[in-house]
Amino acid sequence: MTALEGNSIGAPLPRLDGPAKVTGAARYAFEHPVDRATYLHPIQATVAKGRVSAMDTAPAEHMDGVLAVLTVFNAPKLADTSDGELSILQNDQVHFRGQLIGAVLAESLEIARHAADSVTVDYAADPHHSELRPDDPALYAPEAVSDGSPTDTEQGDVEAALRAAAVTIDQTYTTPTEHNNPMEPHASIAMWDESSGQPRLTLYDSTQGVHTVRKTLAPLFGLELDRMRVIAPHVGGGFGAKGAPHAHNVLVIMAAQRSGGRPVKLALTRQQMFALVGYRTPTIQRIRLGADTDGSLTALWHAAIESTSTVKEFAEQTAVVSRTMYATPNRRTSHRLAALDVPVPFWMRAPGECPGMFAAEVAMDELAIACGIDPIELRIRNEPERDPETGRPWSGRQVLQCLRIGAERFGWHDRDPAPRSRTRGEWLIGTGVAASTYPVNVSPGNTARIEFRADGRFEVRIGAADIGTGTWTALTQIAADALCCDMEAVELRIGDTDLPSASVAGGSSGITSWGTAVVTAARAFRAEHGTAPAIGAATTADAPENPDTEAFAMHSFGAQFAEVAVHRDTCEVRVPRMLGVFSVGRAINARTLRSQLIGGMTMGLSMALHEESVRDHRFGHVVTQDFAGYHISAHADVQDIEAIWLDESDEHANPMGSRGAGEIGIVGAAAALANAVHHATGVRVRDLPITVDRLL
């Protein structure tokens, strides 16, 4: 691909939307001004399995200010009920605790909530199963995992190689249920208008992809796509949970059908989000490694067990990382699912790669110790020349450079490899390292339009999303370089289905997918209209397919370093410093890139030490439903965190030379911390999070 040349890309420019956000002018989903708003509060099932036998709604219906009560017995019928998560209120069946079984629409949020609490529900409850177990007799192999790759793969004879190996590792690692918990809760405003004779739907939504929401929801209500508009100019975080619509979106549209043309507002509470908007599935991972005495891998076996829902299948691609990371002639990976009476899991930052790399990189640390080899040297000795899974050459694989630069900056070579070898007063000090990888994903269906306006500016339109990652700024920089103009000459419009089609902000694919469309449109505009375009000159172009996708293996890579201090008596864990070194292609905006990387690293620290959604299997629900019970790392949890990246450009990935960076920061971070805790204490923790009780 021909790379862009200009002054905008790479510059650490402040966010263009920053002033609007810090002054409160940026409107999020629930904040858009509408006339005569009504408010919706859900009613959720309080059993984990069974059916609703009766609902007494009379007390709610008789309250002043209540406009309607929706139940499983009177809700509007959907035109398409093929999606088990979205086909709510269509029958009396309960599939998990917290499932939507009704809602109250009222003049105020307070009235709606009070009325919803007054509805009495009777159930015919059935025994439920909500616990992930490795011996579950109902475990099954899905047809494929969620990234579309095969469920199982095998190269060579793994069992024979393990039997013959001089050194072996055979351990099981677990990660718990985790919830995304963005700062802005999932929220929507729905307006159903039948004044023209045909229904039209407008939805203000907190989403990572407006076109994805429209494409998914319009058929459920029998609408053609042009009869539905979705708007989301600003989104207060998502981390994957807002990558697709969920049941609450359907609920608010149903209520809008019953509101008499008035807008309906719904913002989920923090507690409701633990049952309704997805989460990271718990995993049980068994990893078996075989190696020669010099650390050369002869066998790798990565088997993942995870949960899905009886309502809808979601198969996390947990073991996929082990198909490409290290060289070995014998390799097996597998995924097995348990369909439980729980809500549907979904994307959470680096889905699959994040929990999979935790297990894989802790296992590599254990192998390094067993072989008496430095953990960085072990990874160097098992570096593949080509992608082990496809045999393709790398578009750019600089993981060894990341490890070496990180080791130098972190002071790794002064490290005594023996556990409990360093103290600082009452604290045991340890350091750990882990490698990381995340694939370059490109989503289809991206179109950009560029128009030259009378004020001398270029209006760039694409229905992309900014979930707090800096899209407003990065796409403006890309457009300015492609149009050979200053940033001030570009006005970007995103976050609306009235704009050209754009893919979801997910899988670190946004800038690659949208940026390619913008560059393609800009180059076509210049070719068609020259450097002195007439007022009103416009060009629309689709992002082309990248032929290099089939010729090269494209991944971002990194190396994570962590230092921990563990109190010798209380076993409290502190994190004095973390360092990440990454290979992510060309930086579009150095400031937002660093923010993404250290944000991912902090989230990895949170995964390692804090985050766990505790499910009470007696009742089937998560009990840690607030930030008091579900702890998330903040500034005070790490004293010094830094992320740097290599000066490079990947001309095979896209015309900007960049690769995805939104998720690589979290991958490997938890493993580096777990390895550091072992180095400090001599205790190997294989079950996240690393809490005091696991070290005492």
Describe this structure in words.
The protein is α+β, with helices and mostly antiparallel strands. Helix content is 23%, strand content 24%. It is built from 15 helices and 26 strands.
CATH architecture of the largest domain: 2-Layer Sandwich
Largest sheet descriptor: 7 strands, mixed
Order of the strands making up the biggest sheet: 3-5-1-12-9-10-11
> Which consecutive residue ranges, at least 5 long each, have pLDDT under 50?
none
CATH overall fold name of the largest domain = Aldehyde Oxidoreductase, domain 4
Cα gyration radius (Å): 26 Å
Straight-line N-to-C gap: 55 Å
User: What is the residue-mean pLDDT, rounded to a whole number?
Assistant: 97
Total count of strands: 26
The coarse overall form would be globular
Query: CATH H level of the largest domain: which superfamily?
Result: Aldehyde oxidase/xanthine dehydrogenase, molybdopterin binding domain
* Structural classification: alpha+beta
Number of domains: 3
Strand content: 15-25%
What's the level 1 CATH class of the largest domain? Alpha Beta
* Count of helical regions: 15
Summarize the structure.
This protein has 696 residues and is of the alpha+beta class.
Write a concise keyword list for the protein shown above:
Aldehyde Oxidoreductase, domain 3, 696 residues, Aldehyde Oxidoreductase, domain 4, alpha+beta, five-stranded mixed sheet, seven-stranded mixed sheet, 15 helices
